[in-house]
Amino acid sequence: MSDDKITISMDEVSHATPVPGATVPPTFTSGYVPPESDPDVKPKRTGLFVGIGIAAVALLCIIGIGIMALWSDKPDGDGIKTFSSKERTVSDYRAEKIQRAQAELSKPDSKWKKLIEDAHLTVTVKSTRIVRCDVKTVDGSDKAGKDNSNIDKVSMVIRFNWQGQVFGPGFSDLRIEYDGQNDKVLTSKIVETSARITIDDDLLWNLGCAICTALAL
């Protein structure tokens, strides 16, 4: 056998006639696959987008819950803070009623102060404050219940400090009692006063009704 080397060009190989029964070697191409055609890249990218979408939805849900929580405890049109009925406690209920009463009493033309002046004839109310506000529930718990359904009785005492035209400064404590289960006023009367004159029980009763209505008891 001769040791001479035989050189065959690629062009000759490509045009060679296949020998019957011979195995044709595979044609090799570059091992690099562009990302857009790589089957392993697309699922990873899709999975990433799905993950981002789920995270975004979860974040929106958290924000929505937070907004609802803030909305349930937001002040109403009068600046009074209200609470969702589901979580409303007696303390929440009491605080709201006191705040509503103070808002009404702070008005320069408050009808409540005018009615007290009319009841004593010769006094001018100078200031007011809530002495106490007691709330009793049906089951004895600290829950006000849905739509305040667990509120049994409410008792509030309001002090009116006045200046008398004849006898100088003084005060009057008005107590109102409300029946939450039957939606009616039980008591509206002056329980303590330094005034010498108090007239018209009907006037005081009307005052109690006006207070209960304004406080949305």
The largest sheet is:
4 strands, antiparallel
Query: Helix and strand succession?
Result: HHHHEEEEH
Range of strand content: 15-25%
Annotation field: number of helices: 5
Rg on CA atoms, Å: 42 Å
Strand order of the largest sheet: 1-2-3-4
How many beta-strand segments? 4
How many structural domains in the coordinates?
2
Give the overall silhouette: elongated
Structural class: alpha+beta
Helix content: 25-40%
Mean pLDDT: 76
Describe this structure as you would to a colleague.
By secondary structure, this protein is α+β, with helices and mostly antiparallel strands. The chain has two domains: 40-70; 90-214. The protein is 35% helix and 24% strand. It is built from five helices and four strands; from the N terminus they run ααααββββα. The chain has helices spanning 10-14, 41-72, 90-105, 111-120, 201-214, and strands at 123-137, 151-164, 168-179, 184-193. Strands 1-2-3-4 form a four-stranded antiparallel beta sheet. A hairpin with a 3-residue loop joins β2 (151-164) and β3 (168-179). α4 runs antiparallel to α5. The protein is elongated and about 80 Å long. The protein starts with 9 loop residues before the first helix and ends with a helix. 17% of the residues are buried.
Label this structure with key terms.
alpha+beta; 24% strand; 4-stranded antiparallel sheet; 2 domains; 5 helices; 217 residues; elongated
Spell out the blueprint of helices and strands.
Blueprint: H1 10-14, H2 41-72, H3 90-105, H4 111-120, E1 123-137, E2 151-164, E3 168-179, E4 184-193, H5 201-214
Antiparallel strand pairs: 1-2, 2-3, 3-4
